[in-house]
From TrEMBL:
A Pfam family: BatD
Organism, as annotated: Croceibacter atlanticus (strain ATCC BAA-628 / JCM 21780 / CIP 108009 / IAM 15332 / KCTC 12090 / HTCC2559)
Protein name per the record: BatD protein
Keyword Signal: yes
Signal peptide: 1-20
Transmembrane region(s): 447-466
Keyword annotations from UniProtKB, A to Z: Membrane, Signal, Transmembrane, Transmembrane helix
């Protein structure tokens, strides 16, 4: 009998514990609001359920939702689950109202939320949420800079990924970059994103859509805390409004928002001094090293190639190569460098090689001494050194090395040979010069004599005038800047024409041409180039409104081309438009 009571108590406790673990709750953004504000209501559960039934929302009009989100995580082997339904409501009148119970079935049991009382007052002067589309946009748009590693070693690759998160209740119709991140203490390489792709993900535990805007690989060039300035965007955000179309559908309101990814701090560790080789030249990563030749047997005066090659993953092309050491009897030319390096989110990968052309002059065997390459291995956090093998070059035929240079590179001074002369030593000197008299016409006091004498004196005033003009031109800082900018504008416009069909280089050259043209004509810097200022200055200088508007649209096209694909036809049209608009503004100004 006692055993039955014990089992019954255990079952009751287990049931009670299971019941306590399941929760279904309602929450609101505020319990008191003005009639011109908006209320968000969220129903949250910690286990998945069926047959969710929301309340009627008496006294409110539903303007958005339900927006469903699900998140699940495992921490220390323990699973947590969250599912929610979110609504946006706007009051229909002032007074006291109640958000009634929502109902759901979870594991065969019906659960209900607790009613929530809401007070709606008269309209407030400054709405803080809900009806304020700007605030709704703030809550639903997030620009995030994700850093792969915040505590790297010096010269270790770090990837920064910029993602724009947008909640399901809003949408983005357009954006442009207003501030680019600066990497003053880093070597940086942007990774091309050919097409923007919308993906589903979570942000702070909530369901969002996101798009990856930019990926950049950074290699810190000094240790300590280094700052990455933020990426900032101007975004057109579409949020639900109070207006409806003729069919009763909800209309969206577009607001402009500036969002920033925020500054990020990278704490860079210096490379350890313990065990650092003397030939270490800041190579960091995982590398292979080898020295090879395309032949080891050849004739004198033939050539061979010796290749020093470093391959792997790391800061390739950012360190010094070890030099090839060869005997002095071999003629060596300056190496030709080849880089086959690609940059991904995992950093630089590929190979860099230097090719030496070597020509032997004498018969014999010539050793190419081993050389060493050292790098810092990030996996083991230790220095490693790789040494190449000795290579012997066998010159099969040719003149014997009887001079000063030997196969081993040692210079000998005992093999001097006497100079043997034959014949008359002055046979090359012409003894009969066949000289002729000048004649009666003397050069002294002739016309040619006076021209040569007085000509340089006459050029002195011209030289003084030319020097003054040149000095005035050199001191004309503003004029020189304008001439230089105008020259650069023509140069980059020509570069853009050569790069038609290659989207990114084309629009980069076109944007440089447009900016340098403004520098030349308006005497302003790139940092001062706002749309309103450009249009105002062009108008003051006599340019018509139409080409000014076209000029602004060209600048915008260059910005949009960074994020959206463009056809060859569109690029040709932008180039023709730029040439025409610059010509028009030139004539009008």
């Amino acid at each position: 009998m006692q055993l039955k009571h014990v089992l019954l108590i255990c079952l009751v406790l287990i049931g009670a514990n299971t019941f306590a673990q399941i929760s279904f709750e309602a929450s609101v953004s505020k319990t008191k609001l003005g009639v011109n504000e908006r209320l968000s209501v969220e129903f949250t559960m910690n286990k998945d359920g069926d047959n969710f039934n929301p309340p009627e929302f008496t006294g409110f009009r539903k303007v958005g939702g339900p927006y469903q989100s699900v998140s699940q995580s495992w921490i220390n082997g323990k699973s947590t689950y969250k599912k929610s339904y979110k609504y946006f409501l706007e009051p229909t009148a002032t007074g006291n109202f109640t958000i009634q119970q929502a109902v759901i079935d979870i594991e065969g049991t019906t659960y209900k939320t607790t009613p929530i009382k809401i007070t709606v007052t008269n309209a407030v002067e400054n709405p803080t949420d809900g009806n304020n589309a700007s605030v709704v946009a703030d809550d639903n748009i997030h620009l995030v800079a994700e850093v792969s590693k915040t505590n790297p070693y010096l010269n270790e690759g770090v990837t920064v990924t910029y993602k724009l998160y947008v909640s399901p209740s809003t949408s983005v119709s357009n954006w442009r970059e207003i501030a680019s991140p600066k990497y003053a203490d880093f070597w940086s390489q942007s990774i091309d994103i050919k097409q923007l792709k919308v993906q589903n993900g979570t942000y702070q535990g909530e369901q969002y859509r996101y798009v990856t805007l930019r990926k950049t690989v950074l290699y810190p060039q000094k240790s300590g805390k280094l700052e990455i300035e933020p990426l900032s965007l101007s975004i057109d955000v579409d949020v639900p409004s109070n207006r409806r179309d003729i069919f009763g559908g909800r209309l969206f309101e577009t607001v402009k928002k500036n969002v920033s990814a925020g500054k990020r701090i990278i704490d860079v560790k210096p490379l350890p001094t313990e065990g650092k080789p003397s030939n270490f030249t800041n190579a960091v990563g995982k590398f292979n090293f080898e020295v090879t030749t395309n032949k080891t047997e050849l004739e004198a005066t033939e050539s061979l190639d010796a290749v020093v090659k470093i391959s792997g993953n790391g800061n390739l092309s950012m360190f010094n190569f070890p030099e090839l050491v060869v005997p002095s009897s071999l003629e060596v030319f300056e190496p030709q460098r080849k880089e086959r390096v690609s940059t991904t989110v995992n950093g630089m990968r590929g190979s860099v090689e230097e090719t030496y052309t070597i020509i032997p002059n004498y018969k014999g065997k010539y050793p190419i001494s081993p050389i060493s390459f050292s790098y810092f291995d990030l996996e083991t956090e230790t220095y490693k050194t790789i040494t190449s093998k000795e290579i012997v070059i066998d010159v099969l035929s040719g003149p014997e090395n009887t001079g000063n240079a030997t196969a081993t590179g040692v210079t000998s001074g005992n093999n001097k040979q006497a100079v043997v002369t034959t014949g008359t030593p002055f046979r090359f000197i012409k003894q009969n010069a066949n000289l002729k008299p000048i004649g009666d016409q003397a050069f002294f006091k002739s016309i040619g004599f006076w021209i040569l004498l007085l000509g340089p004196l006459a050029l002195i005033p011209l030289a003084i005038i030319f020097g003054k003009k040149r000095e005035e031109r050199a001191n004309d800082v503003r004029g020189n800047r304008i001439r230089k900018a105008d020259k650069l504008a023509r140069k980059y416009l020509s570069d853009a024409k050569k790069k038609l069909g290659d989207q990114k280089p084309f629009y980069e050259s076109l944007e440089r041409a447009l900016h340098n043209y403004l520098k030349a004509k308006l005497n302003i810097q790139t940092s001062e180039m706002s749309k309103d200022r450009i249009q105002r200055l062009l108008k003051e200088r006599g340019a018509d409104e139409a080409p000014s508007i076209e000029y602004i649209s060209l600048l915008e096209n260059c910005e949009f081309a960074r994020y959206t694909p463009s056809s060859n036809t569109a690029m040709q049209q932008d180039y023709d438009k730029a040439s025409r608009v610059i010509s028009q503004i030139d004539k009008q100004m």
